[in-house]
Amino acid sequence: MKRMGMIFRAKANKALDRAEDPRETLDYSYQKQLELLQKVRRGVADVATSRKRLELQLTQLQKQSSTLEDQGRKALALGREDLAREALSRRAALQQQVTDLETQHQTLQGEEEKLTLAAQRLQAKVDAFRTKKETIKATYTAAQAQTRIGEAFSGISEEMGDVGMAIQRAEDKTAQLQARAGAIDELLASGALDDSSGLAKDDIQSELDRLSGGTDVELELQRMKAELAGGTSQAIGSGGGSTSKQAIEPGQGQPQTQQQPQDTPRFDKQ
Description:
Blueprint: H1 2-19, H2 22-77, H3 81-154, H4 158-190, H5 203-213, H6 215-237
């Protein structure tokens, strides 16, 4: 089971690595940093709002304290010591609240300063990451384009490989069809195959084609006959003009008869 799980995780990691685009990962990281920076800024705004509320409360309590102090002075002036004492008691309670609020105000102010400094530092890091991100994306895009161009020129890319295989298959099929067509033409010309298309040559045309094909042989044969005839006439002329009758052998056929000269046509005088 451990081995199966390891194999599954390895294949899943390989598939994820193949599907991962560094540019998309960088954009996602930058988006997360922007969200974090927004949260820090929102925190700074919340702290500043709380500090402002404390300042308003302090201002109001200080006004009340001043009012109670004036009331105590007037009460003493009028001889009302009891009223003066009550006013001073209330002023003392307000002073305690003012002291607590001032402590809280200082604490919030310190937190606000820390958050503001953190937001400034985070803003600087986000800006630097954005610049680096864009540089890496541009470099990656250029390298990817250069790799694709190199693969296209070398023919090792998948697209160019498919194109090359398609061209090779087309050439092979074309050569096969040409060879088949040539073989069929030769078989039809030799008569080994019958043309069943209804456009076959008739017997006269076939005979004419055969005779025209043997023209060279016939011409050579006539030339040889002419040479033989010329040699025979020379032998007769050298024999002194004597003629000899040839014996007719059985099976040799009838002797040739000498053609008589035809009478010259006569024309009557008119």
